[in-house]
Amino acid sequence: MQESIQYKIFKVFNVFILLVIVFCTLYPFLNVVAQSFSSEAYISAGEVNLIPKGFNIETYKTVIEDRMFWINYKNTVVYTVVGTAISMFFTTIFAYALSKRRLVGRRFLTLFAVFTMFFNGGLIPNYLLINNLGFHNTIWAIVIPGAISIYNMLIMKSFFENMPDELEEAAAMDGMNTYGILLKIVLPLSKAVMATMVLFYAVGHWNSWFPAFLYLDQKDLFPVTIYLRNMIAGATGGAAVGATSADNLIQISANIKSVTMVLTILPILTVYPFVQKYFVSGVMLGSVK
Hints:
Blueprint: H1 5-36, H2 40-44, H3 58-64, H4 67-98, H5 106-118, H6 123-132, H7 140-143, H8 150-161, H9 165-173, H10 178-186, H11 191-207, H12 210-215, H13 224-233, H14 246-287
């Protein structure tokens, strides 16, 4: 079938618009990467755009040698792994239960869950609750309060509802109980949506900084996002990460924020391409009736 002139014009225009959007999305990131490898003189002069100028890795060396950076980095990995595991456990069982039409009180529980998307107890009551539970300065203050994302739960619920009832009925006739059906039938068929939810939760925990800022006081418990936040806020400068000379201090102060940003987002940036196919299919499958 031959394409019309109007359709060809539309395709060209569509590609152009998408390329502009891609450029606008990538430019800030590429600019940060370029600044992280550039010298102080070019950064101060505002001459760094997409290509590093005056190639310099002194700041990378200094940050990598900073012991506190790696302690905070390790904390972020622990918080992300533990938080994602807890979130996936509670979200999966909650979504699976709500996907069953025979569940007594299903409508009330769904409405109650959705209600929490729009209203919460407030910052001060949450802070007092965390303190009273003894979670202050512990990992649980980071991973427990936001263990279930209602948005993610609704996606999983929709996905489970679209699975054929005959699969579970056949398993039940073979003597399998509810937990066996979930573990051996439902979850193996839900790899796409599970991978999507893991990505959502992992990125959320990795980027999270406010709960740690609110509930943690000890520097050796901070995630790396607090380290980065202190850099951006000016609480930590070149001298704090071990600059050994005036020249080093000037160079490090010029691009330490860019270097820390690049090192912080690198793991997520590395993992994302491998789960992208699950991410796309998982969201689509969870939204189709």
